[in-house]
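Lecture 7, part 2: worked example. A protein chain together with magnesium ion.
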Amino acid sequence: MTFEDESTSPSAAPLSTQELCAWLKAELDIDAQSADEIGDGNLNLVYRVRTSDGSVIVKQALPYLRLAGEGWPLTVDRARIEATALSLHNELSPGGVPNLIHFDADQHLIVMEDLRDHVIWRQTLIDGSLPAGMGAQVGEITARITLGTSDVLVPADNRKQLLKDFVNPELCAISEDLVFTSPYIDSPSNNIDDSSRELAERLRRDSELFAESKRLLWAFKTQGEALIHGDLHTGSVMVTDGDARVMDPEFAFYGPIGYDTGNVLAHLAFASTRHDLLGNQEQVKLITEEALTFWEVFVETIAELWPDSEPWQETFLARVLEDSASYAATEMIRRMVGMAQVADIESLELPQRYEAKQRIGRNARWLALGRPVRTVEELWDRAIHD
Ligand code: ADP
Ligand code: MG
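Predicted complex, written out as structure tokens:
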């Protein structure tokens, strides 16, 4: 399914909760009774709307970055990208994402299934309530939605159309800046405190790492291998016993598959490092298991989907693994000194927060500049090394 963004005005205002309920009744015949803003997100408004027989989630994109206020304009086309990606992801990995109920192009509104029994994966990793088997499920979903939009499985003309539908320059520019550029320079967008000052200063002098980040920026911009999620961290997955859903695909574009897999591994490494510093070895073991099975099931699913007519599956996987190490490294660095940070580390007290950032900075450098990784165990050992 594709959606046209037909709006003439890019400046839809936030709806009041009453307007939202009235709109849901009038347009979708949804018996909306009340709405509460629940978004802890950085970009959009997210509402939980109570109905006579349950609830739905409504997400509205405004023409600016919510986190930064109206001073940072941002295209509302991201709502179309997210809705189109959710619908496509549900075809490629049924039940792996929240169900899309409706997309309204005029008001940039997405109505979707309320995952009210689910919680954000990151939260369960932090508080030690991690349901088992989520890494495996996310590995399968990631394989299905990436390989399933790649040239390996999609006929060339369809893929070219997808490539067009998912041109996402403004959100890519955010990643290009915040992931690959700002952490290595003295940028006002960086978020530096006593726990990260030393690391930030070291990064600015590290010409070898800077060159590697530039190479990876080039690869991020030019390797349109598949429709990647583009923001696949543990805050973009909701989990409950036995069920993981990958959400929030507004950064989706044709990019390197290893960017998604590397992000998942980097964020699992944050959780593991947190628990290691707090002395929770049991949690480190559980998270390690999640990380390794994430990759294992990713590989198994690729093998299952891979066509016999393409005799280069091993080369493909070796390349995605190497890219995963590289993009895990850039993600680890940007979350230590860049604009958007992670609760796994920020909620630690000093001196552990300082120690975590030093360690993650060292490990990222080793991932980025050490000899290429050959196995996921090697990648993970470097990512969580103490
Ligand atoms: P943003 O794009 O602004 O970051 P998200 O899509 O990440 O917004 O949503 C913000 C928060 O809203 C999520 O962290 C989650 O708590 C909640 N949320 C979003 N979508 C759903 C959903 N389908 N079901 C339940 N909660 C949701
Ligand atoms: Mg989000």
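Residues 38-44, 46, 57, 59, 98, 112-115, 120, 247-248, 250 surround adenosine-5'-diphosphate (ligand 1) (CB under 6 Å). The first strand starts at residue 32 and ends at 37. Keep this in mind for problem set question 3.
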